[in-house]
Amino acid sequence: MIERPVERRVPLPNGLGRRVELLGALAVVLFAVVVFRLWYLQVLTGRRDVAIASANVTRNVAIPAPRGKILDSSGRVLAGVRSAAVAAVVCDELPSSRSTRANLYGRLASVLKLPASQVVKTVGSCDSYAPVTIEADIPSAALIYLAEHKTEFPGVVEQQTEIRYYPYDTVGAQVLGYVGQLSEQEESDATFKSVPAGNVVGQSGLEYEYDPYLRGTDGVKKFQVDAAGIPTGEVKTIAPTPGEDLKTSIDLPLEQEGMKAMNVAMGLSHEDGYPGTAAAFVALDPNNGDVLAMGSVPSFNSNVLSQPFISDSEYAGQEDAPVDAFDNRAIAPAAYPTGSTFKPITALAGLESGLITPSTLLGGTGAGGCLDVSGESFCNSGDADYGANNLAYALEVSEDTYFYQLGELANQQGGNVIQHVAKMLGLGKLTGLDLPFASTGYVPSAQSDAQIDRDYVAEFCRHGKHGPFCPDGPFPVWTVGQDVQLATGQGQLQVAPIQMAVVYSALENGGYIVTPHIGQQILSPAGDVLESLPSAKPRAIPEPYRQYIPDILPGLHLAAQGASGTSDDVFGSFPITVYGKTGTAQTNNDPHDDQSWYDCFVKDGKRSIVVVVTVQQGGFGDEAAAPAARLILAKWFGKSEAVLHGTSTTF
Q1: Extents of the domains making up the chain
Q2: CB contact at 8 A, 522 and 213
Q3: How many C-beta atoms surround the C-beta of residue 83 within 10 A?
Q4: What is the model's pLDDT at position 177?
Q5: Nearest CA-CA partner of 338 in 493, 555, 480, 442
Q6: Distance of alpha carbon 596 from alpha carbon 269, whole angstroms
Q7: Beta bridge partners of 246
Q8: Using CB atoms within 10 A of its CB, is residue 17 exposed (0-12), middle (13-18) or buried (19+)?
Q9: Which DSSP category does 487 fall into?
Q10: Cis peptide before 298 (omega within 30 of 0)
Q11: According to DSSP H, which parts of 311-381 are helical?
Q12: Contact indicator for 590, 625 with CB cutoff of 8 Å
């Protein structure tokens, strides 16, 4: 059959047909992708996208929680909060462009009258949930300008907030510590677990130690904003939960007197020709370990450090400070030889080991006040020759040759006689005090020195840190001379004042080791007791040692108030019985570097107190440390706070 012309179809070439089939398949695939994407957006992610869309028209501004107060033992505020106007930035509202941000920071710095570099440094990487505070106590003119020009300052908020306030400035600053915004480096600290970077947390002292209690929980304020980011109305506010209060054992009047006494001690050392670069003190209840007062000078102003931004000179405490003002020298990081305040420890070791009795006569050398040990000469201060004496008189006049001979006897008995008692009384380890960054100190012995040397060689030699050169360890081979030095609190001995306060507490209470502590109770903002912070029960030293403590006390009383006592010119007129010991620790061959110590206690039932004072490069113990200790005791017992300048130049 012949087809009509209109029905005839020209066959497609084979190549063109395949192309048509491929295009058809591609169209089907593309259509399927579009359908799947629509299903994904509407069904699987619909709710999430709605939430994101809602968030795009709201702004969350964190409301910092008021930090809990730190109180003294009578409820007086040592660290509180005050209201202040602040300017802050909300990180996720800032411009994404780096150049635009830089321009914003410059304009903000101009309004706040700050260096642009300060704003950049304070904001940092700005990946925090909480607003990053740029400046507190903003002048009203700057607040008004920022409020009227919001479109020019995207991400910048101005608000009233509670900031940390320390009403007594430098008093007790190292104990209280200070606060600051949590850095990225601090996020790994267990104390700040789950705390977003940028939140204000404790940086040192009690602020750090009790941060989980004091911090509270931030609230949040949700605002509706228009396309320009300007708030158009408040959606919801979740109020912050204030932090809890910390009641401490600190007695504010005694704390203030202690800080005053440290400055007096520094001044006295300068009068005597010594640099007097730093000083520290501890006042302890020997019955339970309550820290009644503690301080260190030079100090710093916690209010300055708790600002959002501080300059390098402000952080240094004072521009020309000879030492770091942030170190709490009562506990660390520096530790010192104690000089003659260590002698009661040596005496207890000698009595218990049978090397001496209270009436044993030692110290008479027949060599003009010097003792020869293995060819090395060990002398009394000023080469004074006191002759042979019993324990009480040796303590009264601080006769070094008596204790040099006792150290030599201890070495002959096999060593570690003195070291054992020192460690038993708490030296060479942490005291358990509830403050961070304390020092363990060091009680030297043949065994411990050798171990340190071995570790040193292993670290620096086997790992090639010095190339082909392999240095010796830091300590020489142990000799009898090192036990002789240790007997008078010299040599490699390193002790913090808080540790000596524990030792003298044991002498006062009859042989019980207390655990120093400051935190007493956690209180609600309304003042209700939420938690009583337990203190460790005092630990008794073995009975063979406790029975010899009464044999040491007469010498300590005579040293403080006896006619020949090394601190009688300071304490002889004090109207209460004092047991105390001067110490002059020689840190090198320069006498101007001598460390001034005074350790003492008063037995008075519930008012019993131990006071330890040390003055770095302060000279003899009677010249600088003893007068400061007298001021502290006078305040505690309500006596005359006269400054009596000691003149004894006995170690």
Answers
A1: 13-41, 64-248
A2: yes
A3: 10
A4: 95
A5: 493
A6: 9
A7: 70, 522
A8: exposed
A9: T
A10: yes
A11: 312-315, 343-353
A12: no
Residue type, 341: T
**What is the predicted pLDDT for the residue at 154?**
86
How confident is the model at residue 25, as a pLDDT? 72
Enter the tokens of residue 425: 């009384």
Show the low-confidence residues of the chain (pLDDT under 50): 1, 5, 53, 55, 317-322
Q: What residue has token string 């503690």?
A: 294
* Sequence-separated contacts (24+) of 225-228 with Cβ below 8 Å: 225/57, 225/58, 225/59, 228/150, 228/151
Give the H or E element holding residue 234: strand 231-238
What is 64-248's CATH topology?
A: Penicillin-binding protein 2a (Domain 2) (3.90.1310)
CA distance 439 to 422: 16
Residue 51, class by beta-carbon neighbours within 10 Å (0-12 exposed, 13-18 middle, 19+ buried)? exposed
Check if the beta carbon of residue 516 is closer than 8 Å to that of residue 501.
yes
Residue the block writes with tokens 């949700």: 222
Q: What is the distance between the alpha carbons of residues 585 and 596, in angstroms, rounded to a whole number?
A: 7
240's CB contacts (< 8 A; 6+ apart) are 63, 64, 65, 66, 216, 217, 218, 219
Is residue 403 helix, strand or coil? helix
What's the angle, vertex CA 83, arms to CA 77 and CA 88, rounded to 5? 130
Return d(Cα 636, Cα 287) in angstroms, integer. Answer: 16
The residue behind tokens 């012995």 is 445
Radius of gyration of the chain (CA): 35
Closest CA to 596 of 625, 562, 632: 625
